[in-house]
Protein backbone atom coordinates (compact mmCIF):
# COMPACT_ATOMS: atom_id res chain seq x y z
CA UNK A 1 0.00 0.00 0.00
CA UNK A 2 1.38 3.48 -0.88
CA UNK A 3 2.57 5.70 1.95
CA UNK A 4 0.26 8.53 0.88
CA UNK A 5 -2.92 8.93 -1.10
CA UNK A 6 -1.72 12.37 -2.27
CA UNK A 7 1.77 13.85 -2.16
CA UNK A 8 1.98 17.58 -2.87
CA UNK A 9 5.27 19.21 -3.87
CA UNK A 10 5.25 22.89 -2.99
CA UNK A 11 3.54 24.84 -0.21
CA UNK A 12 2.66 27.99 -2.09
CA UNK A 13 -0.90 29.09 -2.76
CA UNK A 14 -1.72 26.16 -5.05
CA UNK A 15 -0.11 23.45 -2.94
CA UNK A 16 -1.65 24.69 0.29
CA UNK A 17 -5.13 24.72 -1.25
CA UNK A 18 -4.77 21.19 -2.58
CA UNK A 19 -3.31 19.80 0.66
CA UNK A 20 -6.10 21.32 2.77
CA UNK A 21 -8.82 19.91 0.52
CA UNK A 22 -7.30 16.45 0.27
CA UNK A 23 -6.70 16.14 3.99
CA UNK A 24 -10.16 17.49 4.73
CA UNK A 25 -11.65 14.74 2.56
CA UNK A 26 -9.86 12.10 4.62
CA UNK A 27 -6.92 11.34 2.32
CA UNK A 28 -3.45 10.63 3.67
CA UNK A 29 -1.67 13.75 2.48
CA UNK A 30 1.99 14.78 2.43
CA UNK A 31 3.06 18.38 1.79
CA UNK A 32 6.69 18.84 0.76
CA UNK A 33 8.28 22.30 0.89
CA UNK A 34 11.98 23.14 0.76
CA UNK A 35 11.59 26.87 1.42
CA UNK A 36 9.20 29.09 3.32
CA UNK A 37 5.60 28.04 3.80
CA UNK A 38 3.26 30.24 1.81
CA UNK A 39 5.61 30.35 -1.14
CA UNK A 40 6.18 33.35 -3.35
CA UNK A 41 2.81 35.02 -2.80
CA UNK A 42 3.13 35.39 0.96
CA UNK A 43 6.85 35.98 1.26
CA UNK A 44 8.02 37.71 -1.92
CA UNK A 45 5.02 38.59 -4.06
CA UNK A 46 1.38 39.51 -3.48
CA UNK A 47 1.52 40.31 0.22
CA UNK A 48 4.74 42.35 0.53
CA UNK A 49 4.18 44.17 -2.76
CA UNK A 50 0.67 45.26 -1.80
CA UNK A 51 1.88 46.30 1.64
CA UNK A 52 4.63 48.42 0.06
CA UNK A 53 2.14 49.89 -2.40
CA UNK A 54 -0.20 50.79 0.47
CA UNK A 55 2.56 52.85 2.07
CA UNK A 56 3.35 54.48 -1.28
CA UNK A 57 -0.29 55.30 -1.93
CA UNK A 58 -0.59 56.89 1.51
CA UNK A 59 2.34 59.17 0.68
CA UNK A 60 0.75 60.08 -2.66
CA UNK A 61 -2.58 60.89 -1.01
CA UNK A 62 -0.82 63.25 1.38
CA UNK A 63 0.84 65.03 -1.55
CA UNK A 64 -2.37 65.48 -3.50
CA UNK A 65 -4.67 66.32 -0.59
CA UNK A 66 -4.57 69.93 -1.80
CA UNK A 67 -7.11 69.06 -4.49
CA UNK A 68 -9.63 68.69 -1.65
CA UNK A 69 -8.62 71.88 0.14
CA UNK A 70 -6.35 70.11 2.63
CA UNK A 71 -2.80 71.51 2.80
CA UNK A 72 -0.24 69.03 4.08
CA UNK A 73 3.56 69.20 4.18
CA UNK A 74 5.64 66.88 2.03
CA UNK A 75 5.40 63.44 3.71
CA UNK A 76 8.49 62.20 5.53
CA UNK A 77 9.32 58.65 4.47
CA UNK A 78 10.46 56.47 7.37
CA UNK A 79 11.97 53.57 5.43
CA UNK A 80 12.40 51.46 8.55
CA UNK A 81 8.74 52.03 9.36
CA UNK A 82 7.70 51.09 5.83
CA UNK A 83 9.75 47.89 6.07
CA UNK A 84 8.16 47.12 9.42
CA UNK A 85 4.71 47.50 7.88
CA UNK A 86 5.62 45.16 5.01
CA UNK A 87 7.08 42.54 7.34
CA UNK A 88 4.16 42.96 9.71
CA UNK A 89 1.71 42.09 6.96
CA UNK A 90 3.66 38.91 6.17
CA UNK A 91 3.90 37.99 9.84
CA UNK A 92 0.20 38.48 10.46
CA UNK A 93 -0.85 36.30 7.51
CA UNK A 94 1.88 33.66 7.94
CA UNK A 95 0.04 31.55 10.59
CA UNK A 96 -2.65 30.76 8.01
CA UNK A 97 0.02 29.11 5.84
CA UNK A 98 2.17 27.65 8.59
CA UNK A 99 3.40 24.09 8.93
CA UNK A 100 1.80 23.93 12.39
CA UNK A 101 -1.64 24.78 10.99
CA UNK A 102 -1.42 22.16 8.27
CA UNK A 103 -0.14 19.52 10.66
CA UNK A 104 -3.16 20.36 12.77
CA UNK A 105 -5.30 19.52 9.73
CA UNK A 106 -3.70 16.09 9.55
CA UNK A 107 -1.26 16.89 6.74
CA UNK A 108 2.24 15.46 7.08
CA UNK A 109 4.45 18.45 6.34
CA UNK A 110 7.97 17.57 5.20
CA UNK A 111 10.26 20.59 5.24
CA UNK A 112 12.77 19.48 2.65
CA UNK A 113 13.33 19.41 -1.11
CA UNK A 114 11.44 16.70 -2.95
CA UNK A 115 12.13 14.96 -6.25
CA UNK A 116 10.97 11.91 -8.16
CA UNK A 117 12.80 8.63 -7.88
CA UNK A 118 10.17 6.65 -9.83
CA UNK A 119 6.79 7.32 -11.45
CA UNK A 120 5.10 6.54 -8.13
CA UNK A 121 7.82 7.53 -5.66
CA UNK A 122 9.46 10.65 -4.25
CA UNK A 123 12.49 11.32 -2.10
CA UNK A 124 12.26 14.11 0.46
CA UNK A 125 14.35 14.75 3.54
CA UNK A 126 16.14 11.40 3.20
CA UNK A 127 12.85 9.47 3.01
CA UNK A 128 11.40 7.49 0.13
CA UNK A 129 7.66 8.14 -0.19
CA UNK A 130 5.29 6.18 -2.41
CA UNK A 131 2.02 7.74 -3.53
CA UNK A 132 -1.22 7.03 -5.33
CA UNK A 133 -1.38 10.56 -6.70
CA UNK A 134 1.19 13.36 -6.82
CA UNK A 135 0.42 17.04 -7.31
CA UNK A 136 3.28 19.24 -8.50
CA UNK A 137 2.81 22.78 -7.19
CA UNK A 138 6.43 23.93 -7.18
CA UNK A 139 5.63 27.35 -8.63
CA UNK A 140 7.90 29.66 -10.59
CA UNK A 141 10.95 31.87 -10.11
CA UNK A 142 12.00 35.23 -11.56
CA UNK A 143 13.67 34.96 -14.94
CA UNK A 144 17.33 35.98 -14.89
CA UNK A 145 18.00 37.09 -18.47
CA UNK A 146 21.23 36.52 -20.34
CA UNK A 147 22.55 40.09 -20.45
CA UNK A 148 26.22 40.88 -21.06
CA UNK A 149 27.73 42.15 -17.83
CA UNK A 150 24.96 40.93 -15.52
CA UNK A 151 27.36 38.63 -13.69
CA UNK A 152 29.53 41.64 -12.80
CA UNK A 153 26.88 43.82 -11.15
CA UNK A 154 24.54 43.40 -8.16
CA UNK A 155 20.90 42.85 -9.03
CA UNK A 156 17.56 42.26 -7.36
CA UNK A 157 14.38 40.31 -8.05
CA UNK A 158 11.03 40.33 -6.27
CA UNK A 159 12.56 37.73 -3.92
CA UNK A 160 15.21 40.15 -2.64
CA UNK A 161 13.98 43.72 -3.15
CA UNK A 162 11.83 43.74 -0.01
CA UNK A 163 14.93 43.07 2.10
CA UNK A 164 16.64 46.38 1.28
CA UNK A 165 17.58 48.12 4.52
CA UNK A 166 17.87 51.51 2.80
CA UNK A 167 15.76 52.95 -0.03
CA UNK A 168 17.34 52.83 -3.49
CA UNK A 169 18.75 56.13 -4.66
CA UNK A 170 17.94 55.35 -8.29
CA UNK A 171 16.17 52.08 -9.05
CA UNK A 172 16.56 50.79 -12.61
CA UNK A 173 13.85 48.26 -13.48
CA UNK A 174 14.14 45.91 -16.43
CA UNK A 175 10.61 45.06 -17.51
CA UNK A 176 7.41 47.05 -17.86
CA UNK A 177 4.95 44.34 -16.85
CA UNK A 178 2.85 44.20 -13.65
CA UNK A 179 5.73 43.55 -11.22
CA UNK A 180 7.98 46.16 -12.77
CA UNK A 181 5.27 48.83 -12.88
CA UNK A 182 4.04 48.18 -9.35
CA UNK A 183 7.55 48.43 -7.95
CA UNK A 184 8.25 51.50 -10.08
CA UNK A 185 5.31 53.45 -8.73
CA UNK A 186 5.82 52.25 -5.16
CA UNK A 187 9.43 53.36 -5.02
CA UNK A 188 8.83 56.61 -6.89
CA UNK A 189 6.10 57.59 -4.43
CA UNK A 190 8.43 56.71 -1.55
CA UNK A 191 11.00 59.21 -2.80
CA UNK A 192 13.28 57.15 -5.05
CA UNK A 193 14.35 57.94 -8.59
CA UNK A 194 13.02 55.21 -10.87
CA UNK A 195 13.68 54.31 -14.51
CA UNK A 196 11.81 51.52 -16.27
CA UNK A 197 13.40 49.96 -19.37
CA UNK A 198 10.98 48.02 -21.58
CA UNK A 199 12.05 46.37 -24.83
CA UNK A 200 8.48 46.13 -26.16
CA UNK A 201 7.02 49.18 -27.88
CA UNK A 202 5.10 50.10 -24.74
CA UNK A 203 4.70 49.20 -21.09
CA UNK A 204 1.85 46.88 -20.05
CA UNK A 205 2.15 45.34 -23.50
CA UNK A 206 -0.45 42.66 -22.82
CA UNK A 207 -3.09 45.13 -21.65
CA UNK A 208 -5.56 47.16 -23.68
CA UNK A 209 -3.57 49.97 -25.29
CA UNK A 210 -6.15 52.62 -24.41
CA UNK A 211 -6.11 51.71 -20.73
CA UNK A 212 -2.34 51.27 -20.67
CA UNK A 213 -1.94 54.82 -21.94
CA UNK A 214 -3.86 56.10 -18.91
CA UNK A 215 -1.62 54.09 -16.61
CA UNK A 216 1.42 55.44 -18.43
CA UNK A 217 0.27 59.01 -17.75
CA UNK A 218 -0.17 58.22 -14.05
CA UNK A 219 3.34 56.79 -13.76
CA UNK A 220 4.87 59.79 -15.50
CA UNK A 221 3.01 62.07 -13.11
CA UNK A 222 4.58 60.18 -10.21
CA UNK A 223 8.01 60.91 -11.65
CA UNK A 224 8.79 57.49 -13.13
CA UNK A 225 11.04 57.67 -16.20
CA UNK A 226 9.87 55.28 -18.91
CA UNK A 227 12.18 54.06 -21.68
CA UNK A 228 9.94 52.06 -24.02
CA UNK A 229 10.86 50.24 -27.20
CA UNK A 230 14.55 50.18 -26.33
CA UNK A 231 16.84 47.21 -25.81
CA UNK A 232 19.54 46.79 -23.23
CA UNK A 233 22.95 46.15 -24.77
CA UNK A 234 24.93 45.46 -21.62
CA UNK A 235 25.40 46.24 -17.95
CA UNK A 236 28.46 47.77 -16.36
CA UNK A 237 29.57 48.36 -12.83
CA UNK A 238 29.88 52.06 -12.17
CA UNK A 239 33.47 53.24 -11.87
CA UNK A 240 34.43 54.71 -8.48
CA UNK A 241 35.34 58.08 -10.01
CA UNK A 242 31.87 58.62 -11.52
CA UNK A 243 30.01 61.81 -10.73
CA UNK A 244 27.22 59.64 -9.24
CA UNK A 245 29.12 58.20 -6.32
CA UNK A 246 26.14 56.25 -4.98
CA UNK A 247 25.40 54.45 -8.25
CA UNK A 248 26.43 50.85 -8.55
CA UNK A 249 25.30 49.84 -12.03
CA UNK A 250 25.09 51.36 -15.50
CA UNK A 251 22.54 50.16 -18.05
CA UNK A 252 23.87 50.73 -21.57
CA UNK A 253 21.13 50.80 -24.20
CA UNK A 254 21.58 49.80 -27.83
CA UNK A 255 21.38 53.45 -28.89
CA UNK A 256 24.36 54.19 -26.65
CA UNK A 257 22.41 55.85 -23.83
CA UNK A 258 23.93 55.19 -20.41
CA UNK A 259 21.68 55.12 -17.35
CA UNK A 260 23.40 55.02 -13.97
CA UNK A 261 21.54 53.69 -10.95
CA UNK A 262 22.12 52.48 -7.43
CA UNK A 263 20.06 49.31 -7.78
CA UNK A 264 18.89 47.05 -10.59
CA UNK A 265 15.61 45.10 -10.43
CA UNK A 266 14.98 42.25 -12.86
CA UNK A 267 11.27 42.01 -13.69
CA UNK A 268 11.22 40.38 -17.11
CA UNK A 269 9.02 37.37 -16.41
CA UNK A 270 8.90 34.10 -14.53
CA UNK A 271 10.03 30.54 -15.25
CA UNK A 272 8.71 27.25 -13.79
CA UNK A 273 10.78 25.58 -11.08
CA UNK A 274 11.56 22.32 -12.88
CA UNK A 275 15.27 21.70 -12.42
CA UNK A 276 15.25 20.00 -9.01
CA UNK A 277 12.25 17.70 -9.55
CA UNK A 278 14.02 14.95 -11.58
CA UNK A 279 11.03 14.71 -13.89
CA UNK A 280 12.66 12.05 -16.08
CA UNK A 281 12.64 9.62 -13.16
CA UNK A 282 8.97 10.39 -12.64
CA UNK A 283 8.09 9.99 -16.32
CA UNK A 284 6.69 13.53 -16.25
CA UNK A 285 6.89 15.52 -19.47
CA UNK A 286 7.59 19.24 -19.30
CA UNK A 287 8.03 22.16 -21.64
CA UNK A 288 9.98 25.36 -21.08
CA UNK A 289 6.69 26.76 -19.75
CA UNK A 290 5.99 24.05 -17.17
CA UNK A 291 4.56 20.57 -16.58
CA UNK A 292 2.64 19.48 -19.66
CA UNK A 293 -0.91 18.58 -18.71
CA UNK A 294 -4.26 17.98 -20.31
CA UNK A 295 -7.01 20.52 -19.76
CA UNK A 296 -7.94 18.72 -16.52
CA UNK A 297 -4.39 19.36 -15.19
CA UNK A 298 -3.39 15.70 -15.38
CA UNK A 299 0.09 14.94 -16.69
CA UNK A 300 0.15 13.91 -20.36
CA UNK A 301 2.74 11.22 -19.59
CA UNK A 302 2.19 9.97 -16.02
CA UNK A 303 -1.46 9.38 -15.06
CA UNK A 304 -0.55 9.45 -11.37
CA UNK A 305 0.63 13.06 -11.57
CA UNK A 306 -1.21 16.39 -11.75
CA UNK A 307 0.18 19.95 -11.82
CA UNK A 308 -1.35 23.14 -10.45
CA UNK A 309 -0.46 26.82 -10.17
CA UNK A 310 2.32 28.61 -12.03
CA UNK A 311 4.07 25.38 -12.99
CA UNK A 312 1.11 23.87 -14.88
CA UNK A 313 1.12 24.12 -18.67
CA UNK A 314 -2.28 22.86 -19.87
CA UNK A 315 -2.36 21.86 -23.53
CA UNK A 316 -3.74 24.56 -25.80
CA UNK A 317 -4.16 26.96 -22.88
CA UNK A 318 -0.76 27.63 -21.37
CA UNK A 319 0.34 28.70 -17.89
CA UNK A 320 -0.99 31.61 -15.86
CA UNK A 321 1.13 33.03 -13.04
CA UNK A 322 -1.60 34.38 -10.77
CA UNK A 323 -2.34 33.43 -7.17
CA UNK A 324 -6.07 33.32 -7.85
CA UNK A 325 -5.44 30.76 -10.60
CA UNK A 326 -4.03 28.51 -7.88
CA UNK A 327 -7.44 28.51 -6.21
CA UNK A 328 -9.16 27.85 -9.53
CA UNK A 329 -6.79 24.95 -10.22
CA UNK A 330 -7.53 23.46 -6.82
CA UNK A 331 -11.23 23.38 -7.70
CA UNK A 332 -10.48 21.72 -11.05
CA UNK A 333 -8.28 19.20 -9.29
CA UNK A 334 -11.02 18.22 -6.84
CA UNK A 335 -13.39 17.47 -9.70
CA UNK A 336 -10.75 15.82 -11.89
CA UNK A 337 -8.48 13.89 -9.52
CA UNK A 338 -10.73 13.16 -6.56
CA UNK A 339 -14.27 12.88 -7.94
CA UNK A 340 -13.19 11.73 -11.44
CA UNK A 341 -15.82 13.91 -13.10
CA UNK A 342 -15.57 13.70 -16.90
CA UNK A 343 -15.27 16.88 -18.90
CA UNK A 344 -13.51 18.77 -16.14
CA UNK A 345 -11.13 21.34 -17.55
CA UNK A 346 -9.46 24.67 -16.94
CA UNK A 347 -11.28 27.63 -18.43
CA UNK A 348 -9.73 31.09 -18.42
CA UNK A 349 -12.52 32.86 -20.33
CA UNK A 350 -13.49 34.88 -17.26
CA UNK A 351 -10.05 35.08 -15.66
CA UNK A 352 -9.29 38.48 -14.12
CA UNK A 353 -5.86 40.06 -13.89
CA UNK A 354 -4.93 43.26 -12.11
CA UNK A 355 -1.91 45.53 -12.07
CA UNK A 356 -2.11 47.05 -8.58
CA UNK A 357 -0.81 50.49 -9.38
CA UNK A 358 -2.83 53.62 -8.67
CA UNK A 359 -5.04 53.71 -10.63
CA UNK A 360 -5.29 49.95 -10.90
CA UNK A 361 -5.60 48.35 -14.31
CA UNK A 362 -7.95 45.34 -14.33
CA UNK A 363 -8.81 43.13 -17.27
CA UNK A 364 -11.46 40.42 -17.25
CA UNK A 365 -11.87 38.25 -20.31
CA UNK A 366 -10.72 39.53 -23.70
CA UNK A 367 -9.25 42.89 -24.58
CA UNK A 368 -10.49 44.54 -27.77
CA UNK A 369 -7.34 43.41 -29.61
CA UNK A 370 -7.64 39.83 -28.34
CA UNK A 371 -11.29 39.64 -29.37
CA UNK A 372 -10.45 40.76 -32.89
CA UNK A 373 -7.52 38.33 -33.09
CA UNK A 374 -9.86 35.48 -32.13
CA UNK A 375 -12.15 36.31 -35.01
CA UNK A 376 -15.04 37.95 -33.21
CA UNK A 377 -16.77 40.08 -35.79
CA UNK A 378 -19.02 43.10 -35.48
CA UNK A 379 -17.79 43.98 -32.00
CA UNK A 380 -19.36 46.74 -29.97
CA UNK A 381 -17.00 48.79 -27.80
CA UNK A 382 -18.66 50.77 -25.02
CA UNK A 383 -16.77 53.15 -22.73
CA UNK A 384 -17.63 55.26 -19.73
CA UNK A 385 -14.97 57.69 -18.49
CA UNK A 386 -14.62 58.37 -14.77
CA UNK A 387 -14.72 62.05 -15.71
CA UNK A 388 -18.47 61.45 -16.03
CA UNK A 389 -18.83 59.42 -12.83
CA UNK A 390 -20.21 61.31 -9.83
CA UNK A 391 -18.16 59.45 -7.19
CA UNK A 392 -14.91 60.03 -9.07
CA UNK A 393 -15.73 63.71 -9.46
CA UNK A 394 -16.64 64.05 -5.76
CA UNK A 395 -13.31 62.52 -4.74
CA UNK A 396 -11.28 64.55 -7.20
CA UNK A 397 -10.11 61.43 -9.03
CA UNK A 398 -11.74 61.69 -12.47
CA UNK A 399 -8.95 59.90 -14.35
CA UNK A 400 -9.85 56.48 -15.66
CA UNK A 401 -12.20 54.48 -17.79
CA UNK A 402 -14.41 51.40 -17.99
CA UNK A 403 -14.28 49.71 -21.39
CA UNK A 404 -16.58 46.86 -22.39
CA UNK A 405 -16.02 44.53 -25.34
CA UNK A 406 -19.43 43.24 -26.41
CA UNK A 407 -20.67 40.96 -29.19
CA UNK A 408 -23.36 42.20 -31.55
CA UNK A 409 -25.87 40.02 -29.69
CA UNK A 410 -25.12 41.58 -26.33
CA UNK A 411 -22.70 39.08 -24.82
CA UNK A 412 -19.88 40.50 -22.73
CA UNK A 413 -16.55 39.21 -24.03
CA UNK A 414 -14.26 41.35 -21.93
CA UNK A 415 -14.05 44.30 -19.58
CA UNK A 416 -11.13 46.62 -18.90
CA UNK A 417 -11.05 49.00 -15.96
CA UNK A 418 -8.60 51.79 -15.18
CA UNK A 419 -9.67 53.21 -11.83
CA UNK A 420 -8.78 53.35 -8.15
CA UNK A 421 -9.44 49.88 -6.69
CA UNK A 422 -10.37 48.52 -10.11
CA UNK A 423 -9.71 45.00 -8.86
CA UNK A 424 -12.62 45.34 -6.45
CA UNK A 425 -14.95 45.82 -9.45
CA UNK A 426 -13.63 42.85 -11.43
CA UNK A 427 -15.78 40.20 -9.80
CA UNK A 428 -19.07 41.31 -11.34
CA UNK A 429 -17.64 41.14 -14.86
CA UNK A 430 -16.07 37.75 -14.20
CA UNK A 431 -19.45 36.45 -13.05
CA UNK A 432 -21.16 37.78 -16.16
CA UNK A 433 -18.61 36.29 -18.54
CA UNK A 434 -18.30 33.00 -16.66
CA UNK A 435 -22.07 32.49 -16.42
CA UNK A 436 -22.69 33.89 -19.91
CA UNK A 437 -25.15 36.44 -18.60
CA UNK A 438 -26.58 38.95 -21.08
CA UNK A 439 -25.32 42.50 -20.92
CA UNK A 440 -28.82 43.52 -19.83
CA UNK A 441 -28.02 41.97 -16.43
CA UNK A 442 -25.40 44.65 -15.89
CA UNK A 443 -27.41 47.44 -17.48
CA UNK A 444 -30.39 46.74 -15.18
CA UNK A 445 -28.34 46.18 -12.02
CA UNK A 446 -29.31 48.44 -9.12
CA UNK A 447 -26.12 49.84 -7.60
CA UNK A 448 -25.68 52.09 -4.59
CA UNK A 449 -25.15 55.74 -5.48
CA UNK A 450 -22.57 57.13 -5.84
CA UNK A 451 -20.03 54.42 -6.66
CA UNK A 452 -17.34 53.94 -9.27
CA UNK A 453 -19.07 50.72 -10.29
CA UNK A 454 -21.81 52.82 -11.90
CA UNK A 455 -19.40 53.57 -14.75
CA UNK A 456 -19.67 49.97 -15.92
CA UNK A 457 -23.45 50.05 -15.72
CA UNK A 458 -23.54 53.24 -17.77
CA UNK A 459 -21.25 51.70 -20.37
CA UNK A 460 -23.57 48.68 -20.59
CA UNK A 461 -26.58 50.98 -20.92
CA UNK A 462 -25.01 52.55 -24.00
CA UNK A 463 -25.41 49.22 -25.80
CA UNK A 464 -29.20 49.45 -25.51
CA UNK A 465 -29.59 53.21 -25.97
CA UNK A 466 -29.90 53.11 -29.80
CA UNK A 467 -32.68 50.55 -29.55
CA UNK A 468 -34.60 52.46 -26.89
CA UNK A 469 -34.36 55.70 -28.87
CA UNK A 470 -35.16 54.19 -32.25
CA UNK A 471 -38.01 55.62 -34.38
CA UNK A 472 -40.05 52.44 -33.88
CA UNK A 473 -39.90 52.71 -30.10
CA UNK A 474 -40.81 56.39 -30.28
CA UNK A 475 -43.84 55.59 -32.43
CA UNK A 476 -44.87 52.92 -29.93
CA UNK A 477 -44.62 55.37 -27.04
CA UNK A 478 -46.66 57.85 -29.06
CA UNK A 479 -49.45 55.29 -29.35
CA UNK A 480 -49.26 54.10 -25.76
CA UNK A 481 -49.48 57.63 -24.39
CA UNK A 482 -53.06 57.80 -25.70
CA UNK A 483 -54.15 54.97 -23.44
CA UNK A 484 -55.98 55.97 -20.25
TrEMBL record:
Keyword terms, alphabetized: Disulfide bond, FAD, Flavoprotein, Membrane, NAD, NADP, Nucleotide-binding, Oxidoreductase, Redox-active center, Transmembrane, Transmembrane helix
Name of one Pfam family that matches: Pyr_redox_2
Record field: transmembrane: 6-27
Binding site for FAD: 50, 114, 310
PROSITE patterns: PYRIDINE_REDOX_1 (PS00076)
Residues of the FAD/NAD(P)-binding domain: 4-326
Domain Pyridine nucleotide-disulphide oxidoreductase dimerisation: from-to ranges: 352-459
The keyword tRNA processing is annotated on this UniProt entry: no
Matching Gene3D superfamilies: 3.30.390.30, FAD/NAD(P)-binding domain
InterPro entries in the record: FAD/NAD-bd_sf (IPR036188), FAD/NAD-binding_dom (IPR023753), FAD/NAD-linked_Rdtase_dimer_sf (IPR016156), Pyr_nuc-diS_OxRdtase (IPR001100), Pyr_nucl-diS_OxRdtase_dimer (IPR004099), Pyr_OxRdtase_I_AS (IPR012999)
Chain sites annotated for binding NAD(+): 175-182, 198, 269
Cofactor requirements of the protein: FAD
Record text on cofactor binding: Binds 1 FAD per subunit.
Disulfide bonds listed in the record: 41-46
Record-level Gene Ontology MF annotations: flavin adenine dinucleotide binding; NAD(P)H dehydrogenase (quinone) activity; oxidoreductase activity, acting on a sulfur group of donors, NAD(P) as acceptor
Family: Belongs to the class-I pyridine nucleotide-disulfide oxidoreductase family.
Protein name: FAD-dependent oxidoreductase
Organism: Roseicella aerolata
Lineage of the organism: Bacteria, Pseudomonadati, Pseudomonadota, Alphaproteobacteria, Acetobacterales
